[in-house]
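Quick one: structure tokens for this chain, please?
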Amino acid sequence: MEKKLKKTMESELKELNTKLDEKKLYLSQKTIIEHIFGVYFYLLKLEVPSKLLPCALKGLSKYCHVVNVELVSDLVCCVSEKSIYLLKVNYILLKQRLNL
């Protein structure tokens, strides 16, 4: 009887530890994703063209499926603002080249 009780308790403890480990893993992955997207948004919001922008856009496209829906609207807004800004900059640069 004691062996069965001990075995049952050990299996329940093992299951509980597994659930706790999964929760810790989920929370750590969530924190990592939040930090990564924080860097991506920072690069998108820079006013000057950055060499890291293509990498940020590639990373956003790669991990966009794990983002909350609330962040998607901010993401679309940032990308559209950045694309308009880059179009204006490229237009000015092109005009300058043609005038030279």
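The chain has one domain: 2-99.
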